[in-house]
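Hi V.,

You were right to ask for the full record rather than a summary. Here it is.
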Amino acid sequence: MKILIVNKTLQVGGAEQQLVKIATYLHGCGHKVSFLLYEKIGDLVNTIEKQNISIYTLPSKNLWNLSRYVRDFIQKGLYESVVSFLPECNLLCVLASLPIKKWRLVTGARSANPNFLRNKRLHLYYYSHIFSDKVISNSETNKKDILYIVPWIKNKIEVVYNIIEPLVPISEDCFVSQTSDKISLAIIANYREVKNLKGLLLALTSMSDKFLQRLTVHWYGSEIDESKRKGIQFIKEKGLERFIYLHGPITNLSSVYQSMDVIGLFSHYEGLPNSICEALMFGKPIICTPVSDLPYILRGSNNIICDSSDFYDIKKALENLLSIDKSNLFKYGKDNKNKYSQLFDEVTIKEQIKNIICG
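Predicted structure:
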């Protein structure tokens, strides 16, 4: 089957990582997969090109002209299935399919914006799913929000959790370090306001020196807005340079997971966050906010959950983390590894996605 995946770029992000994993799997199953991008940029471009998967780019950014171009591109390429995950790309693919189409259209529903009831643009994106053959949501929370606005797609939408592939063979050696009194905390998230770097920094400034001296934070991600620049300025002003480091994106994620004690996420909202799913896989304790399906996924565990809108609550959560004996953190990590095995069977998820895309 000829399959076209439409996306903005191949910069490292949650949706992009999933699309690359899907493309790789479908390509390995013998399907002819291609990408159509707004711009051929991003750290994942090399990953795709090494597999001899074709990448094409769109000629302009005018939505009407783009939709006509995409329609012609699909028809001339004889594509049988078209896949997109991001809202703008979903709308583009829907417009390209009107008034009638001969290909299968699969769109993704990954945003869990809590302001969806007031956001008219989100309503437009949600309504566009009516014209899809199938809709993939990566959380029950997101599915519930979409069906509240567009109940007519109830029979089209399916929840499929993210593909979480083992990056390296995982042993207990990469659980919490027992050799140091300090805790290393990693956040793997793009620099965007919604990811809440500001809340984390305010929490750090309010911590007592007793706790702060025992914590080192590393943030990894691509710059999407001004969050990183503002964060660097704030860190200098408050003298936090020894306690938090803001890095760029990283493709060798396994090295980060292996070297860090705890994985964190302080977002105001998310779809299903890859970093937390991967933290489970690597047997890492977690400190996070209750976004998406995380309250369900982490239920019955000793992971720490805090309120993203209250930096004082983040501060208390961090101090709670630093008060836990490392032997207990080690045990919490092992429990998370077992939880990953129960919830994220890689083969099952990949086959589920393949069946949706291929029909």
